[in-house]
Predict the 3D structure of the following.
Amino acid sequence: MKQLNVDVAIIGGGTAGLGAYRAAKAHTKNVVIIEGGPYGTTCARVGCMPSKLLIAAAESVHQIEKAPGFGVHPQGEIRIDGREVMDRVKRERDRFVGFVLESVDEIPASDKISGYAKFVDHHTLRVDEHTEIRAERIVIATGSRPAYPAVWNELGDRLVINDDVFDWEDLPEAVAVFGPGVIGLELGQALHRLGVKVKLFGLGGQVGPLTDPQVMAYADKAFKQEFYLDADVKVESMKRLDDSDKVEIQFINHDGELETFIVDYVLAATGRRPNVDKLALENTEIELDERGVPTADHYTLQTSVENIFIAGDASNQIPLLHEAADQGKIAGDNAGRYPDIRAGLRRSPISAVFTDPQIAMVGETYRQLETRLGGCGCFETGEVSFENQGRSRVMLRNQGLLHVYGEHGTGRFLGAEMMGPNAEHLAHLLAWAHQNKMTISEMLDMPFYHPVIEEGVRTALRDLNAKLHLGPEMVKHCLDCGPGC
């Protein structure tokens, strides 16, 4: 077995792993990165980029369908060529992956170890059965994978995860999507708009990542108006039909009746699990959370074993690309400079779901605030509906609800949850304000053009400022910058 001695070993070659490698290299040249599968990030291969390509195709269809609302009537029937749709998705996906692989190619071959690593002890990794690595410091950046009930494997190749969708040659006729979270909502709505018969099922009533009951209820209602969604379904049976490439699902529908849905695929979008269960962590003294995932300091990414760090989807923190990039940089930097550990920049939380309307969250969630401040009534909620917001109505995109949260006494902006038009952009403005620890009054001093959707943010902030007793009462029809603001 080959023996290596290195300063830093990175386990995983995705977003967090590549970021950790670059950061560690700034301190020492003796760094290796271990990858058992293909290089290239989850985002580029099977995540955010290919899903947005599918969503873009669906949005183009939806715009044509909405045109008569403006008095514009397209001629003839809309024809969706599933093969052309998927061909573009895969071509552009491969292009994005290519950019990642170009950066991987720049890594010296001697720094790349192929295989799956397991811990022998706090300083030793065994890669398959060919290499043993003695590392002074180790960064775990192994990512995550889809998780679903094992019994679903009985469906064979009729069970798919989001990774599989982007390898389809053509669009199927019917799909059942289980899991109305980020992935399920995005893919479910996109497939529906592309002409696929879709039913979206969940358990427990959760819709997306939302925690604010009113915003979640609004989202549930909005999606149900477009496609079948039951976020707390009772499934009686699900089985693959004999001698068929079809799956039969029997469930209790919204009318309380037993309904049968025959589909080409069951898409499991029921969550993801960190890839830490095959690392032989039992050979270390790393403290684990209730899911068996190593815990780590939020600012240094150092685990309970001081020479081991963890970053990205493998950690017990936020599983998003920009978070993985930040965490990888922090973990790699600290592994490289160890024992001179530094607290890294952790940005204000921001997340988005690219449905239509979009969903977004910023700062502390409603649930976090209820836990932290709810008992003392120390925060208030400002609200705006986009149904009568001027620019939203102009564009026939007037669906949505925004809640912003502020702290009594200080007037500080604490967070927001929303569903609405351009929520991805509204969330960025609010995240910047949150990271700068702005008060509601300071945010209201910022410029707002007319007519723009962002004026809805100002309306919500005015409502919040009044409820915090820091500003005047809301004027129902404010005309200080034009109608419909």
Residues 139 and 309 are 5 Å apart (CA to CA). The first helix runs from residue 15 to 25. The chain has 13 helices and 22 strands. The chain has three domains: 2-145+273-337, 150-268, 350-467.
